[in-house]
Write a structure and sequence with these properties.
- By secondary structure, the protein is mainly α.
- 70% of the residues lie in helices and 3% in strands.
- It has a three-stranded antiparallel β-sheet, with no helix packed on it.
- β2 and β3 form a beta hairpin.
- The longest helix is centred in the last third of the chain and has 34 residues.
- The chain is globular, with a radius of gyration of 24 Å.
């Protein structure tokens, strides 16, 4: 369907419910994001309630924090979804510069905080934030702006290397200095997704993959903590009371859930048996309480997000939009797959949250912000803006319904009064 046909108000509404609709990406992104957010809030409340009572005297402490972050992230996502594409192009360099400076603040004495061996947090007054989450979105937007301008020259390694690789390497490097290998892996997935959609030849990916494997091996060999995680994952006789404890109890949670689960709130592992039950291993609690059905629903929603973002890449003519969306989809879906692989035992414990579902303020806000950016791109698809403009807003529809209801009530009352007088 052409953009002109999609803009006709008498054609678009009839096709609105079909995947071929020009606004399908827009509505699927919003719907899948909203459902994952709701599921996440419910599961954070359930999985954190026991330890919240122990630590804070209230079962709702962690949940209320997560709800507060959602109330920040949702308006931010709505705001970003309304910005034009050209605004993001203009903000690419300032965003990345600010994100790198913020990440460097974790090394400032008195500001930086170390959690679980990772120095990846910063405290600004009463607020605590994880700057690496800001780096993810800023890097995706920056790669889109830079690679889109050089797309015709990316067959040459020099144009690929300068400035994309050094600057992206700097962004990943400042995260690695804080020993956060999990976030660095997600950033590498983001860079790979952006470069692939930009049109970088596959032979260059082979060289980059070899370099990445070598760097990962070096980082693993130079860290006793990482080596312990890897060897315990590969070992057949891992100590169930220490090295394999978390993975084992995550498996217990998933296995005991069965097909339909034990019921919402009925998890046994959340009673301080499973560490990080409301963070990195929330998928295990979800499987325990909601069963295979619940896990498949979550996987299906992430699949819908992926398909909608890939549809934006396919349909949008602007290379900046294509490349930036590729980076974001590689980040969010790649991180979700890493998290789930860890929980089910297909990967060693790395320490990355499940997007939109796990507890964590910085991760939730920036994931919602990134999806808001992609929604802005979906609104800019050919024919989408015209189609959305022909549909009345929610407020106008609500007012119209209220007005019709009042008119109907007045019409119903008039005959009764006349009949009473007669």
């Amino acid at each position: 369907m052409s953009a002109l046909e999609a803009a006709e108000p008498d054609v678009e509404p009839r096709r609105l419910g079909h995947w071929n609709s020009v606004v399908a990406s827009y509505y699927v992104l919003i719907g899948a994001t909203a459902l994952l957010l709701v599921i996440g809030l419910v599961m954070v409340l359930s999985s954190s309630s026991v330890e919240s009572i122990d630590a804070n005297g209230s079962a709702f402490a962690v949940f209320l924090d997560q709800a507060k972050f959602a109330l920040i992230g949702v308006p931010l996502a709505i705001l970003l979804s309304r910005l034009p594409v050209r605004t993001y192009v203009r903000l690419a360099w300032p965003m990345l510069g600010a994100a790198v400076v913020l990440q460097l603040m974790v090394f400032v004495p008195g500001l930086g905080i170390e959690v679980g061996g990772n120095r990846n947090w910063v405290r600004l007054g009463p607020l605590t934030a994880q700057p690496s989450e800001v780096v993810k979105l800023a890097l995706a937007v920056w790669l889109g702006a830079v690679l889109a301008r050089k797309q015709a020259y990316l067959q040459s390694w020099k144009h690929v290397f300068i400035p994309a690789v050094p600057v992206a390497g700097l962004a990943v490097g400042v995260v690695l200095i804080g020993h956060d290998l999990g976030t660095a892996m997600v950033l590498l997935l983001l860079v790979a997704g952006a470069l692939f959609v930009a049109g970088v030849p596959l032979r260059m990916f082979a060289v980059a993959a070899a370099m990445a494997v070598g760097a990962a091996a070096t980082l693993a060999l130079t860290s006793s903590n990482r080596m312990d995680r890897i060897t315990s994952w590969l070992s057949d006789d891992c100590n169930a009371s220490s090295d394999c404890y978390q993975t084992l109890h995550g498996t217990y949670g998933l296995a005991s859930g069965g097909l339909g689960g034990l019921g919402l709130g009925q998890s046994r592992e959340k009673w301080s048996y499973l560490p990080a039950a409301h963070n990195d291993f929330i998928f295990a609690i979800l499987g325990e309480e909601l069963g295979l059905v619940g896990t498949l629903v979550v996987l299906g929603l992430f699949g819908l997000l992926a398909v909608a973002m890939l549809r934006v890449i396919r349909r949008h003519p602007n290379p900046f939009v294509k490349i930036t969306t590729a980076g974001i989809v590689a980040w969010i879906i790649g991180q979700a797959l890493i998290n789930i692989a860890v929980v089910i035992g297909f990967a060693p414990v790395i320490g990355v949250p499940l997007p939109l579902v796990s507890a964590g303020g910085s991760a939730l806000i920036m994931t919602l912000a990134a999806l808001g950016v992609v929604v802005a791109f979906a609104r800019d698809e050919p024919g989408a803006a015209q189609a959305l403009a022909t549909r009345p807003s929610v407020v106008r529809r609500s007012l119209a319904v209220v007005g019709l209801t009042r008119s109907a009530r007045r019409a119903d009352r008039t005959p009764r009064r006349g009949a009473a007088r007669a």
